[in-house]
């Protein structure tokens, strides 16, 4: 992979991982346009790590509080405190549990539908259809937004609904952030909290995907001459991911998700036409 292709893919990965427009769908399209056929696992692993670092940079205070909350729950339970009491001590403890709960559906759906997902990644028609679906979900999220509660006030049912929405994002073209933010809005999360919960929820998913890919990589699988482009792309993915998160937080706060809905509708229809002709 040359420097130009690696940089373009890194920018696309970093931006679309968090913009509600589907990173997987965009990568399928861009790889096709660049005629990049090889799938370097080392590249994918570092791109996932780069976007994960972006989340840590933006939400470092929340991440630190969630880690402390999780450790606190474990320590309390170890010392004989009942689980309900250990969890209900503060809002971050409740949020940590809801993030765990909401991460389960994606893990199950990823394992069950893995063969089907591999097939979908080779279909531009499927990518186009799921991009159109993403736009519809974004529009519905804005339409159904009720903005009343914070993440700690979620219920088991509401957390699972956000998790199930995230699970559908295994399909190329269906945006993870778009699905989770929109579902968060529809179940009553306040606008900023819906985006914040979505991005914090991405940590287990991105980390898990990176670990699974890393298992198949021999010494990160760097091909001859590819180390510099890949490492440069890694840094680029951190910067573009950081900018994307900031942009989405601003857009959600200003009720601008419909802009992304229109974009994914137009792109999706264009890809469907492309796949047909």
Descriptive report:
The chain is mainly α. It is 77% helix and 0% strand. The model has no long low-confidence stretch (mean pLDDT 88).
Intertermini distance: 29 Å
**Helical content (DSSP H or I, runs of 4+):** over 70%
Oligomer: single chain
Number of strands: 0
Q: How many structural domains in the coordinates?
A: 1
Topology overview:
Layout: H1 3-18, H2 23-34, H3 41-58, H4 60-78, H5 83-87, H6 91-112, H7 114-120, H8 124-144, H9 156-167, H10 176-186, H11 191-214, H12 227-253, H13 257-276
Summarize the structure.
The protein is mainly α. The protein has helices at 3-18, 23-34, 41-58, 60-78, 83-87, 91-112, 114-120, 124-144, 156-167, 176-186, 191-214, 227-253, 257-276.
List keywords for this structure.
277 residues, globular
């Amino acid at each position: 992979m040359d420097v130009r292709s690696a940089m373009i893919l890194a920018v696309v990965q970093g931006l679309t991982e968090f913009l509600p427009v589907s990173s997987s769908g965009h990568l399928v399209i861009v790889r096709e346009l660049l005629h990049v056929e090889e799938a370097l696992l080392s590249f994918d692993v570092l791109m996932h790590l780069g976007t994960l670092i972006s989340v840590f940079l933006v939400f470092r205070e929340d991440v630190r509080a969630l880690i402390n909350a999780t450790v606190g729950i474990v320590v309390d339970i170890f010392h004989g405190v009942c689980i309900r009491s250990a969890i209900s001590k503060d809002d971050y403890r409740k949020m940590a549990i809801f993030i765990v709960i909401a991460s389960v559906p994606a893990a199950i759906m990823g394992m069950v539908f893995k063969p089907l997902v591999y097939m979908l990644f080779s279909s531009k028609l499927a990518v186009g259809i799921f991009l159109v679906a993403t736009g519809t979900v974004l529009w519905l999220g804005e339409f159904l937004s009720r903005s009343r509660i914070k993440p700690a006030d979620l219920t088991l049912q509401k957390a699972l609904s956000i998790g199930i929405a995230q699970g559908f994002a295994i399909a190329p073209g269906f945006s993870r952030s778009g699905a989770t933010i929109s579902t968060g809005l529809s179940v009553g999360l306040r606008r900023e909290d819906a985006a914040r919960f979505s991005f914090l929820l991405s940590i287990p998913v991105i980390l898990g995907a990176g670990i699974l890919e890393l298992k198949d990589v021999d010494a990160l699988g760097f091909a001859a001459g590819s180390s510099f482009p890949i490492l440069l792309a890694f840094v680029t993915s951190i910067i573009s991911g950081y900018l994307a998160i900031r942009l989405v937080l601003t857009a959600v706060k200003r009720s601008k998700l419909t802009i992304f809905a229109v974009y994914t509708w137009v792109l999706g229809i264009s890809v469907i036409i492309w796949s047909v002709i």
